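Design request, tokens follow.
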């Protein structure tokens, strides 16, 4: 299903006149990564193992919350919300070619929005039988959110260009 979600995400961006993001992401994907770069990325990712104790503790807390009826499900949804919000827009970050640092900066500027989106997505996806439907509606919602972000970004770029032209006159 991830491939279908990618197609839906890309289709919505294209439908909403943001083909440039989709095309640049696909062009970037076709480049082969040299072996030396792959090896250095693996070596650099070894530092991510330092978060293992945090992840184990977080998993234990989520497990214990899952034992509490009703309230536990809401706590789990809230704990997982920021990650779910970022995961929903992972395709956008890939298409834009954003680094981990750029993603962190973007996340910090829009943290409440990511928590809100992730909370609603987690709660909807926890409903049995309907969760398959909500996986796709969450993808569509994330894509439409990206359309809004891209429109704002392009509008800001146009405003900056206009300000530069006014200053030069």
């Amino acid at each position: 299903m991830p491939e279908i979600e990618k197609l839906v995400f890309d289709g919505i961006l294209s439908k909403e006149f943001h083909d440039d993001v989709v095309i640049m992401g696909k062009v970037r994907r076709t480049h082969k990564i040299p072996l030396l770069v792959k090896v250095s990325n693996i070596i650099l990712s070894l530092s991510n193992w330092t978060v293992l104790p945090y992840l184990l503790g977080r998993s234990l807390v989520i497990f214990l919350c899952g034992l509490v009826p009703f309230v536990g499900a809401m706590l789990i949804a809230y704990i997982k919300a920021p990650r779910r919000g970022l995961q929903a827009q992972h395709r956008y970050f890939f298409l834009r070619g954003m680094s981990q640092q750029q993603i962190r900066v973007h996340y910090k500027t829009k943290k409440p929005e990511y928590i809100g989106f992730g909370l609603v997505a987690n709660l909807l996806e926890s409903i049995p039988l309907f969760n398959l439907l909500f996986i796709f509606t969450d993808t569509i919602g994330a894509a439409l959110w990206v359309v809004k972000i891209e429109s704002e970004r392009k509008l800001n770029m146009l405003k900056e260009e206009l300000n530069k032209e006014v200053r030069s006159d």
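Comment from the thread starter after seeing the answer: thanks! The mean pLDDT is 83.
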